[in-house]
Write the structure tokens for this entry.
Amino acid sequence: MQLAHRLQPLQSNVFADMDQAKARARSAGREIIDLSLGSSDLPTAEHITQTIAHSLSDPSTHGYLLFHGTQPFRQAAAAWYTRKFGIPVDPETEVLALIGSQEGTAHLPLAVLNPGEFALLLDPGYPSHAGGVYLASGQIYPMPLLAENGFLPIFADIPEPVLAQARLMVLSYPHNPTAACAPLAFFQEAVAFCQAHNLVLAHDFPYADLTFEDVTLPSILQADPDKTVSIEFFSLSKSYNMGGFRVGYAIGNATLITALRQVKAAVDFNQYQGILHGAVAALTGPQTGVQAMVNTFRQRRDACIHALDRIGWQAPTPTATMYIWAKLPTAWTQSSMEFCTQLVEATGVALSPGSGFGKTGEGYVRFALVHEPPILATAIDRIAQFLSQV
């Protein structure tokens, strides 16, 4: 049997390799402390789950859900966005419900790229961004993110021959995995660059609420209020601890929303309507749970940084996201993948290798702060023991 060539780049996945390493550690009797996946361990607020539960007894929610049936959710999303960022949004033409924002970022290349055309992606970056380009038979130009540049790409470094064939740029700040934030001036530069080169500008924004200090997290549409080239993706997975419910949305340029809707219509309808009822309750109801989530991750960030400092592993303190992006200890001379596989097999502590997010991620590991401080401290004690034997 011969499969499509576009699947070739998807066959290698370091996270699948990490899953195998975790399985070997479990088989050897190790207790796993998994800090490799950015899936929140916090519960969804009760008023959200009660809304979903109430929907189950309503037979009108049990059928297929087409676009027009998502109107209440789209209206809630548009109102939430306007309250937060001050940009008016038309819920009929500028909002699209998604089965998680990952669905949108993976499908967008199918709507805007022809085979062989380039997408400009962050390196390191979120793996599904690349996966969507490969499925669209596009090419990837990686924009390196370096610490000395604040983990922001340098647009002037993109070669002209690449720009001539490019149709899409994907950004995502606060950034996974580096936890870097971008100021509004950077987004304004990005919008001007994409306007000048006729590029679609997509911004993946799942950490819109997850900031710890007095750091302003701008929307890309604040730099492109007329929505000339931009589309932004939001998720309820982080702000409202709804990762398993798979609900997100896109807001932006009406032509791009229509194109993405056409792709979506060929692939799926929508998620269960009761989930969207819960999402409306999340967006329009009390927001105290969002602040509690932020406070929890701030405490975990501080505990993890303190514990790392205690064992002599220096890492910058992030101002947003649920991650710590740390350079490998100087004593370690092998790859980030080898560090993570050997660490989990020896101690049960699972981290994400930087190479899993792109070539420029090599030399780093990512900690996901998805456990309480005492467990984080235990994990780092185990890491110290592992490093003492290096």
